[in-house]
Amino acid sequence: MPNQLKEGQYFGRQNHKFQFNGLTITDTEYTHDYVDWHSHENPYFTFLLQGGLIEENKKESYQLTPGSLLFHNWDDFHRNFKPPVFTRGAHLEINNSWIRQSEVNLDSLQGSLKVNNPICKNLLYKILLESKLYDEFNETSIELLLFQLFDTLEGDSNSKNNSKPDWFNKLEEMIYENHDQKLSLKQVSAELDLHPVYLSRAFHKHAKVTFGQYCRAIRLNKALNKMLANKDKLTAIAHHANYYDQSHMIEEFRKNLNLTPKQVLGLLG
Fold it and tell me: DSSP label at 70?
């Protein structure tokens, strides 16, 4: 088993591979119950679509479920454990020439990083969908989405360095713990003992998106995760993700992904 995997090389069965201009996007089924310590030649993202995975590096252990997102910088050694279930993930690999040409700075993203920001996960879903749409626009679209992704990651890293206020961390917990319920600005501002106008402005300052955009990204990703994880009917998935009804979910998919849920399943299912 090699210690370092070359560009575009992953353990498992590649169901789909899209490669251009120094970027490699794969849709891979994990077939190994255990993968020993190894690293990759280039930085890359792992986005779990189905099943489960435990990934360990020298410092941390990550329990991955559908919708989990990791970023690995180069020379970061890790190993994987797969439970006895069907497991599938997407990889987005970026070679060093693309990084140099694009002048992307990865200094603040060393080692392995678990990415919780729902905006980043939403962008990964969009990139994966674009990689399966064969037209004259998808390559440019993917690169633009990748720039947005790195901008968001860099913003998160800078926010951590500047330390977010305690109320922001508490608010993030509230959003994730109550993502199956409706959360109003009035409700959360009362819970945090902050004025709604101040909360709205300050949230945008730290998250770089509005409170509503952040919550909608969580809801959209939750629906996508559920769609890929099982064969529930769309009405059940809409209810699970807290849309008003199936029509509301279809409208939100069209607005955010330019595709219906059935079209998404046709590409990713």
Answer: E
